[in-house]
Amino acid sequence: MEKKSNSVNRRNFISKSALLGAGIVASPLAFANGKNAPGTIEGLKAASNPEKRMLGALEVSPIGLGCMSMKSGSYNPPRDTKDMIPVIRGAYDLGVTFFDTAEVYGPFTDEELVGKALQPIRDNVVIASKFGFDFSNGKRAGRNSKPEHIKSAVEGMLKRLRTDRIDLLYLHRLDPNVPIEDVAGTVKDLIKEGKALHFGLSEVSPTTIRKAHAEQPVAALQSEYSIIQRALENEVIDTCGELGIGFVPWGPVCRGFLGDKFNEHSRFSSDSRLSQVPYFTPEAIEAHMEVLRLVHEWGRKKDATPAQIALAWVMAQKPFIVPIPGTTKLHHVKQNQGALNVTFSDTELKEFRNALEKIQLVGVRGPETALVDQ
Ligand SMILES: NC(=O)c1ccc[n+]([C@@H]2O[C@H](COP(=O)([O-])OP(=O)(O)OC[C@H]3O[C@@H](n4cnc5c(N)ncnc54)[C@H](OP(=O)(O)O)[C@@H]3O)[C@@H](O)[C@H]2O)c1
Asked: Quick check: CB of 324 below 6 Å from ligand 1?
């Protein structure tokens, strides 16, 4: 499916950014809609897909880019900035305009990378970042969403992201010592000041979503959701639908598992975050190989890779779902964008789900976890 080299994408970026600098060019998606799109990438219909999705009132590309693993050290050692800038800019060339980071990734270094990479195309992209932690000696040190802390955190985020506003400002994890209304009220003030444009939440319960939304409309909830991790189908996604809130699944490729990154022999050393994930124990991996086989089966039917099936499946669940697959590789971004070409009929979705429900999952969250703040 991938017929052109990455250098084509890079050239596109350079030519587009030169024109953008001169103020004579439209956004990549506008390009993508037109016959005159420079350097149209053969075989990648995604780039010409006019579809966009809404997260509340915020318009985004239907698939975003999760930038966490570029610098966080969660799944791989932190990558060099010089190697990651082409991935981020290449994603933009492929039609991605929605980029996800957080203060805690690194900490700080991921925002620095994203800010540097997106600076030349700032006005054409949506930047999402998250606050909610204290830091000590360059490390995360507990939750903190006190209003004054949020305000000073946002000042740092704006500097690192090289911008005057954060398009989507998320609370990363609820601080049990601060009422959610106070957090929402603080973000409301930041929105009034123009330092944030939209409000997001992450890993909170339907009750918290409702309380926050009453104070300041929430544009997006970002929580873990994939073919394997489906707990949030218990009330959370429906609450988003009811309130007009977008849902942004993190971990949509099941942290690489549905991208065929591991096999039944995969084991994780204690310095890998994956070693602490309960659905990656040897027993769980073995059980989930059956899910992977099912995903491969659908991949054969749809002429798609497993990662593309994983992404197309989450997007097919609701029109307000916008996954943000994380990757450090431009060829994976390109492949993931190909998920935009994969669709499921209602009958196929039912067939897929029937098969899924027969598979006994191990170490995943139970439905009751969806109803409590994480
Ligand atoms: N709100 C939160 O609490 C929270 C928590 C975690 C993450 N996030 C955000 O959500 C984003 C995505 O989540 P995630 O990174 O945890 O999980 P993910 O997107 O499910 O998986 C990321 C892993 O999948 C691999 N991958 C991606 N595309 C692939 C492909 N086409 N083929 C094979 N492997 C592929 C990547 O490896 P390669 O680098 O080798 O491609 C990476 O190791 C993060 O980047 C971050 O921005 C938010």
From this structure: yes
Does ligand 1 lie within 6 Å of residue 100's CB atom? yes
pLDDT in tens, 58-91: 999 999 999 999 999 889 999 999 999 999 999 9
Distance 311 CA to ligand 1 centre (A): 11
Q: What is the pLDDT of residues 310-339, one digit of tens each?
A: 999 999 999 999 999 999 999 999 999 999
Residue nearest to atom 15 of ligand 1 (CA): 326
Ligand 1 atom closest to Cα of residue 102: 47
Q: Is 307 in the pocket of ligand 1 (CB under 6 A)?
A: yes
User: CATH: 3.65.10.10, 3.30.2350.10, 3.60.15.10, 3.20.20.100. Which one for 13-21+42-371?
Assistant: 3.20.20.100
Choosing from 92, 105, 170, 225, which is the catalytic residue? 105
Q: Specify the ligand 1 atom closest to the Cα of 257.
A: 24
Q: Is 145 in the pocket of ligand 1 (CB under 6 A)?
A: no
Beta bridge partners of 218: 199
> Residue ranges per domain, the chain?
13-21+42-371
Q: How far apart are CA 256 and CA 368, in angstroms?
A: 25
**Long-range contacts, 138-144 (Cβ 8 Å, 24+):** 138/107, 139/107, 140/104, 140/107, 143/173, 143/174, 143/175, 143/176, 143/177, 144/175
The answer for residues whose C-beta is within 8 angstroms of residue 323's C-beta and 6 or more apart is 63, 64, 248, 249, 252, 311, 314, 315
Residue pair 306/299 in contact by the 8 Å Cβ criterion: yes
Express each pLDDT in 221-236 by its tens digit.
999 999 999 999 999 9
Does 349 have pLDDT greater than 90? yes
* Residue 198 β-bridge partners: 168
236 Cβ closer than 6 Å to some ligand 1 atom: no
- Residue 343 pLDDT: 96
Catalytic (active site) residue 279 = no
Q: Which atom of ligand 1 is nearest to the CA of 255?
A: 21
